[in-house]
Amino acid sequence: MPSRRIVTALKRRCVFSKTTDSTTPSRGEEFIMLLEDTTASQAEVLAQHLCMAVAEHDFARIGTLTVSAGVTQHKDDDDDQSLLVRVDNALYLSKLNGRNRVSVLD
C-alpha angle 67/79/42, rounded to 5°? Predict the structure, then answer.
């Protein structure tokens, strides 16, 4: 299953700075990364590194892949739904603007 191979490759290629950081499949080939005590700009840099790492990795029988990422930061008045809608909109913006890119929405 490609989703599991991608998560495994991401975990091998990326160093999470805190034990509370996590990566998990969301829907289909989409993933959610939760990064505690991380600003949106720090998350953007990490997402850019992930895009590059995946683009440079040769996945057996699949070849190369690209990543589009959406980044946002939790706000005090967020509930689960508002946070997911905002990050989903950021992801859609990345896909709309040519894929293999990172978009940040406040």
Answer: 40
- Per the annotation, the verdict on 29 as an active-site residue is yes
* CATH classification at residue 94: 3.30.70.270
Active-site annotation holder among 29, 30, 36, 56: 29
Domain span holding position 64: 2-104
Residue 66 sits at φ, ψ, to 5 deg, of -120, 165
pTM score = 0.72
What's the average model confidence in pLDDT over 63-80? 89
Render pLDDT for 30-69 as a digit per residue (tens, 0 to 9): 777 778 888 899 999 989 988 888 888 888 888 888 888 9
Number of domains in the chain: 1
User: In Å, what is the CA distance from 49 to each residue of 66, 77, 79?
Assistant: 12, 29, 28
